[in-house]
Amino acid sequence: MDVLQTKESLAKELTQLKGQGRTIGFVPTMGALHRGHLSLVDCSRRQDDVTVVSIFVNPTQFNRRDDFEQYPRNLTSDLKDLEEAGVQVVFIPGEAEMYPEPDHRTFDFGQLDKVMEGHYRPGHFDGVAKIVSKLFDAVQPHRAYFGEKDFQQLVIIRDLTRQMDYDIEIIGCPIVREPNGLAISSRNKRLSAEQRKQAAQLSRVIFQARQYADRYAIDQLKAWVVAELNKNSEMDVEYFEVVDEATLTSVNAWSDAYYKRACVAAWVGQVRLIDNVKFYF
Ligand code: PAF
User: For the chain, what are the domain ranges?
Assistant: First the structure.
């Protein structure tokens, strides 16, 4: 496994591999790898000749400096996991490599980045778009893999790819869950045993809501979900939305869209968690 720190060395290696006719799959990450990330690597390994993983904690997508500084960093164990997973190339640039000068670009995603995460984390998706476009320029993969847990991010990256005319296939991979249903996230490590139990209610309740979909009007269902989740002493729901998967606009009646997704964000103690489930079969 080659571990590279500069765009130049990466380009050299990838030009050679592409010259041999090999297809390149790309998994961008911020490290602190878990089974969710490794499932993306697995998807790539099944489709591409070469899998490239980047590890870069991107400062421009954090709303708070302390959140960025406290983000977990486990390079040694990450590299071990990637080696065991059969990854051929890991890109670990420093900040000066990715941002040699400030990046003042702003992106227009219309409604897509105004709702849900975009509403509660202003500027976050501009930061994601900045780094993903820089990484796409550096790797120029055939395919790139993103988890459906960050569903809004996935939709925005598809839009970014279309706007920037990248010839990259964007693949969304299913959410990986703990046996109790909790969506796997690097933030889960910060939960106490009791908070983990309560956090598992997030997926339980949204899956249950899907069962109730035909019985209740959307507004009633939303109110039920929020009330049910907020019964947990440590939980504070930020939003629960049922949205059209393509536009991310709220759906007001079940017939408004076929491909609907229910998305939730909630604080469990000091930890902010997100989850989602598709509302079609
Ligand atoms: O999903 C993430 O881990 C990050 O947002 C990404 C796509 C690696 C960009 O920093």
Answer: 2-173, 186-280
